[in-house]
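Pair request: fold both.
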Amino acid sequence: MALLLVDGFEGYGTSVGSNYINRFLLRYPNSTTSAAVIRDGRYGGYAVDLYSTSYYAETPPWSGGNPTLVFGFAVRRVGSPIYDAFIAALYASTSSKIQVKHIVSSGELEIRVGTTTGTVIGATTGAAIGTDWVYVEVKVYFHDTVGTVDVYVDGVSRLSVSGADTLSGTSIPDRLRLYSNSTIYLDDLYVLDGSGTRNNDILGPQKVVAVFPTSDVLSEFTPSTGSDHYALVDEVAVGRTEEADWVEASSAGICDTFGYGDVSDLGPIAGVQLSTIARNEGGSALDMISRVVSGSTTSDDAGVECTSSRVDYLRVLEVDPDTTSPWSVSGINSAVFGVKAG
């Protein structure tokens, strides 16, 4: 699979100006979470305003080790920034590999290999990051002699570097960090690698839309309160250490599925991502299986074992399992999604 994850920053707060609520999808490892704030998004909804390289948000690690990685995000500058700011970086565990820096004086983006003090291998021309939203995409082929870096802004190539040492060691990156300096807003993130036959290269500007459960379809789990299961799992923002209500399973084989709000006004759809927060509160070991029912097809993934820690479990589907073709708006709107205990 090429598409690794997406995030529209809709699950980290419930109002503009509120503090960032910590989640695993983009976890905020520092104690000062008040340094991260929810802002107005690019197409409505929310964006995120982080603080500095000391207060980064980090994706969960991905696997595969493919040497080609692409990430894209919407960005805008606000106010009158004084300092240059690192805004994104690819890491191999805790080792910095590629840094993207915003230069205030020119509005351009600078690419460094290694740490924030690493070698500058190129800077964009004509990117001009300003107060309007633009969409930045960075593609890196990691190699110690023939590495490449390409940067696109709003679908236009603004930097192309070849024949470079982009590896800075031996490890391929397995996660992305996002930063800011209180003058940069970020939205509509995607990350992919070079594997597979779909979504394995620059996608062009993307929009990430979040929808939440609105109805029950199959209700076999036990609700923590009431009888409407969907109402217990439809929170817009849930942190990593608290919950007000939930559904639970004590044995394998049972399932809860839900109808979701409709999507609209979308171009070609790169994929659908299910994000489910779950944990095991004790007792029997159980797997959390993501279920999609589209048309006459029921698609369950292999599942992951639930642990005592609350974690965002992600499943990305690049195609509609019923048609094996890219998702359509009608396909998403008619499908149901849920969880199964395994």
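--- second member of the pair ---
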Amino acid sequence: MTTTSTKRKREVRVRIGDWTSPSSGEVSRLVVHAELGPSRPEGRTHQTVDHGEVTDPWRLSLTGDIRCRRAGSSHWGDGGGGQIADYLPLVTAFAQADENGAGLGWDANRVLGLRRLWQDWHLNDCKAACSHMPPDAHARWEAKEAVVCPETGYSYGSAWLVKPLTGEVLIALAGLFGPEFVQDVTPDA
């Protein structure tokens, strides 16, 4: 018997804000693209970072675009994109809700919350370390040092582990991207 997930992918693009280069006067605009959908392949049981199991977990993916406008120009050019979380603290002119209340207003605290969420939960179904490994597990692995779970013997990077989305993460996502983004999403059990 084949089962299919009823989870549907949802996406949102949100303008976070701008910053101006003090040396060139160039303005950079940062836009975040958030996607929440079923992990692939569907119908499969995955091992979690705590060595449990979860079937059909949710996957959170965060990317961004940076658009640039030279001083005195009205044209926005392509400045790059992808994993731009490190650029979030540069934003000084935050995007605000419009006069009709549409859109989400941003400030330094919301941007900090987005950056933390990005660092901890981006591609939550592709984690190389289990929860029992030290925070520097990746650096130790890159230095060709064996990194092994002290509880189970799992070797760093030998599988993609899932960090199941929690209710707290879903609340944070709703606060950052609006309640529609997580509507009908339940925490992974």
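Observation on the second member. Residues 128-161 form one domain.
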